[in-house]
Amino acid sequence: MSNLLSLPDTCAPDRASALAHAVRSRGITAISHHSAAHVHGLTSEAPALVHVLALRGSHPTSSSGVIVHHTRTLDAGSVVRVGDVPITDIASTVVMMAAYSTVAEMQAMIRAACRLDVSIEELRHVASVRRRRGRAGPGRLLDALEQLGHDTRGELRARRRGEQLAPPAA
């Protein structure tokens, strides 16, 4: 998996500052969802608001321009650092974003994640582990992966190169 060392060029200095400031608020664990997707290069458009993740039961100080999402648990490996900013890892971000994305957007994020060396198997595993009643993202991602048809990273790379693939085994 790729741990980026800096915020993307498309992240303006004031945007980078807003991201860094948002995670310094008490109770905030990491940049997440739409903001993390943009930082990881899974989406091209920067969200208007900064999305952050807080553990359930914490009561982060809210500020304008920040959307706080809550979670019961977050594995230590689910957060990476981009510069000094903690951000949900790529696989976790794709799972979280599935709740807010169309099938086409999910499939584009899946392909982007594969280009960043996240495997289909890892995405499937993270979605399966996080699948619970009341969470739309994991189930939607598993459905999107099924629609892609059990692609492996090699198959996705071959498609990007325009190679013809053999049909999946029945």
| Main beta-sheet strand count, sense and barrel state | 3 strands, mixed
Q: Note poorly predicted spans.
A: 1-10, 163-170
What would you report as the Rg, rounded to the nearest angstrom?
Answer: 16 Å
How many strand elements? 5
Q: What fraction strand?
A: 5-15%
Order of helices and strands: HEHEEEEHHHHH
Spatial ordering of strands, largest sheet: 1-2-3
Write a short abstract of this structure.
The chain is an alpha+beta fold and 170 residues long. Helices cover 42% and strands 14% of the residues. Residues 1-10 and 163-170 have low confidence and may be disordered.
Describe it:
With 170 residues, the chain is α+β, with helices and mostly antiparallel strands. It has helices at 13-23, 33-40, 90-97, 103-115, 120-130, 136-148, 153-160, and strands at 28-31, 50-55, 66-71, 79-82, 85-88. It has a three-stranded mixed beta sheet with strand order 1-2-3. It has a two-stranded antiparallel sheet with strand order 4-5.
What keyword list fits this structure?
170 residues; alpha+beta; 3-stranded mixed beta sheet; disordered N terminus; disordered C terminus
Secondary structure layout:
Blueprint: H1 13-23, E1 28-31, H2 33-40, E2 50-55, E3 66-71, E4 79-82, E5 85-88, H3 90-97, H4 103-115, H5 120-130, H6 136-148, H7 153-160
Parallel strand pairs: 2-3
Antiparallel strand pairs: 1-2, 4-5
Helix pairs in contact: 2-3, 3-4, 3-5, 3-6, 4-6, 5-6
